[in-house]
Design brief:
By secondary structure, this protein is of the alpha+beta class. It folds into three domains: 34 residues, no CATH class; 77 residues, no CATH class; 62 residues, GMP Synthetase, Chain A, domain 3 (2-Layer Sandwich), CATH 3.30.300. It is built from five helices and eleven strands. The strands form three sheets. A four-stranded antiparallel β-sheet has the order 2-1-11-10. Strands 6, 7, 8 and 9 form a four-stranded mixed β-sheet that branches. Strand 4, helix 3 and strand 5 form a beta-alpha-beta unit.
């Protein structure tokens, strides 16, 4: 690392020498990193999104106040079932709405609306269970090749499911695979972010 002040970092880590982390901002060109910023402090974590307004119009009288009580029927999302993903939206501090992305909206409404009056919103899912499972299979199989750190299932502000995948950097074959998938199904979150070609800016 060109321009790194190791002594300053050692001094900054004295309060917690066992921390073992280093935050670097710079330009990576082939075999070296030209350091712009170097710190023993970790960058702040991104806060988790808190979804407020459900993507359905509220029922007459507004959304019901209270906590959503989830039961076995909601958690039972087998490969042939219509429920693809569930998210809790919170219109206010004492209101919770279960928002379901489903392949059969009417079936899920019939199944769950009696149990969640005024607390249910069901939207058509952009993706099927088979599409999500296929992505998981590929990510598990290519975990080491693509240097994946984490992946899971998230939802956007319309309660649509997607798979965020964090990796060291985006390789050509990884990008080609994602480009062939339905748009929005996978979101790549590399720890190395391009600054300008052919360099890589790292954080």
């Amino acid at each position: 690392m060109i321009g790194a002040d190791a002594d300053a970092i050692a001094a900054g880590s004295a309060a917690d020498p066992g921390l073992g982390y280093l935050s670097v901002v710079g330009v990576w060109g082939d075999e070296s990193i030209e350091v712009e910023e170097l710190s023993a402090e970790l960058p702040p974590r991104e806060t988790r999104a808190v979804w407020r307004e459900p993507p359905c119009p509220p029922p007459p009288g507004g959304w019901r106040h209270g906590v959503v009580e989830l039961d076995a029927d909601v958690h039972d999302r087998g490969p042939s079932g219509p429920i693809i993903h569930i998210t809790i939206f919170r219109p206010s501090a004492d209101q919770e709405v279960l928002v379901v992305a489903a392949t059969d909206v009417d079936a899920v409404i019939r199944q769950l609306s009696p149990k969640l009056p005024g607390q249910l919103c069901v939207v058509p899912s952009r993706f099927t269970r088979a599409q999500i499972d296929e992505v998981y299979d590929v990510l598990h199989a290519r975990w080491r090749d693509w240097r994946l750190e984490t992946f899971g299932t998230g939802s956007d502000d319309q309660a649509q499911p997607y798979i965020p995948a964090t990796m060291f950097r985006v390789t050509a074959d990884l990008a080609e695979w994602v480009d062939a998938l339905p748009e929005g199904l996978v979101r790549l979150e590399p720890t190395l972010v391009p600054a300008s070609v052919p360099y890589i800016r790292i954080r």
